[in-house]
Each structure stands twice: as C-alpha cells, then as structure tokens.
C-alpha cells in the first residue's frame, strides 16, 4: 500500500520535485575571433549552507570531481566550437598569479591592482582573453516523501555555474561577456543534467 501511495505521490508531485532543466540568465552572444587565444583558469568552487552562508567542505559533496568534470567539459565543448584554449599553468610565474586571484577576477569589475598581471600574463601566453568560471553551490535539506502524511518536498539545494570572458585591454575592467546557469539541485558531475548545464553555459560563446 505504501509503495502504491509513493508512486501516486510521484505522479501528482509538482514539476519542481523532479530534476528540472538548467536555467540560463542571459541571451547575449559573443563571438571570439578565431585568431584570438583564450587563457582558461581553473574553475572556482564554493559550497555554502543555504541558511547561514557558512562555508562547507567541497569534499563532502564531490567538489573535486565536480571541478574536474567541469573543466574537462568546458575544454571539450569550446574546442569543438573552434575556440583556441590554453589552460593556465599554476607553475608559470604570471599565470600562477592569475590562478591565485581567480576569486577577485570573478567580481563584476576586475580590481585595478590585478589588471597589469592580467595584461602581462595574456601577452606572454599569446592570448587575447581570460576565461574565469565558478561553480557556487548552496546546500540545503534534500527532497523527501513522508508515507504517513503524504507530504512531499523537493530539494532546496541549488548550484549556479558562472563564466566571464575578460579582455585585458578593457578600459572599464568589466568582462566582455558573462553567463550564468542555475541547476535546482546539488550538482552531480557524472549526470547528463550537469553536462547539459555546462553546454548551456557556453552555447552563446561562439
């Protein structure tokens, strides 16, 4: 009987109970000239409690795997679409400084003290742009179904994937292109939903 009620609840549950398609924030397209190289920084990972904003250990939520899969999918997708990528080398004196400053590069405006390093690093690498990305996750209670009361709820966790293309020669320090994609659940790196979200993040970067 309980199994029947469970199946019935699933059929009657609102669509928010299920894994919904990722949601894109912008419809702005940017075309990267084919002779322009893009320096790709490692993805910035951030996990926080949804109620207190307290930082959480990414390792408890497959953070390392999420970052590795994100970087791999990003490189494969953009290269397939003709964008010349150069993954940043943390051991390089200039690129390493950018890797260490990735959190600051994710701001709406690049801090003035980082711009000289940005210019020098891209010039030395033969690149015209820097691509910075982030996966920010808010962790909350998971979804549940109470067979006694019939109460049903979807997970409150969500993730925002962010990408920004920075032009070192920009006079105002603002990125040339920005995109965000939201996943309304904890990111699972090996799922088709996560791969779809990464693809949607870059589909308007031509």
In short:
This protein has 206 residues and is of the alpha/beta class. The chain is built from six helices and nine strands, in the order αβββαβαααβββββα.
Topology:
Blueprint: H1 2-12, E1 23-24, E2 37-40, E3 44-49, H2 63-80, E4 84-87, H3 93-100, H4 102-105, H5 115-125, E5 129-139, E6 144-145, E7 152-153, E8 158-166, E9 177-183, H6 192-202
Parallel strand pairs: 2-4, 2-5, 3-5
Antiparallel strand pairs: 1-9, 5-8, 6-7, 8-9
Helix pairs in contact: 2-6, 3-5
Q: How does this model look, in words?
A:
The protein has helices spanning 2-12, 63-80, 93-100, 102-105, 115-125, 192-202; strands at residues 23-24, 37-40, 44-49, 84-87, 129-139, 144-145, 152-153, 158-166, 177-183. The chain has 206 residues and is of the alpha/beta class. It has one domain (2-6, 32-202): Rossmann fold, CATH 3.40.50. The chain starts with a helix and ends with a helix. The relative contact order is 0.23.
């Amino acid at each position: 009987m309980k199994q029947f009620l469970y199946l019935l609840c699933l059929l009657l549950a609102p669509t928010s109970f299920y894994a919904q398609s990722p949601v894109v924030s912008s419809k702005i397209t940017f075309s990267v000239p084919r002779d322009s190289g893009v320096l790709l920084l490692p993805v910035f990972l951030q996990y926080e409690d949804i109620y207190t904003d307290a930082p959480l250990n990414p390792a408890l939520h497959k953070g390392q795997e999420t970052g590795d899969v994100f970087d791999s999918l990003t490189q494969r997708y953009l290269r397939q679409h003709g964008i010349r990528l150069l993954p940043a080398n943390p051991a390089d004196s200039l690129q390493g400084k950018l890797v260490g400053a990735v959190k600051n590069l994710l701001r709406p405006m690049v801090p003035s003290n980082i711009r000289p390093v940005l210019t020098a690093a891209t010039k030395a690498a033969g690149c015209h742009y820097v691509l910075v990305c982030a996966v920010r996750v808010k962790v909350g209670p998971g979804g549940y179904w109470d067979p006694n009361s019939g109460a049903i709820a979807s997970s409150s966790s969500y993730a925002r994937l962010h990408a920004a293309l920075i032009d070192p020669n920009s006079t105002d320090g603002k990125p040339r292109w920005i995109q965000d994609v939201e996943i309304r659940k904890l990111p699972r790196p090996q799922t088709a939903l996560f791969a779809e979200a990464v693809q949607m993040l870059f589909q308007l970067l031509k």
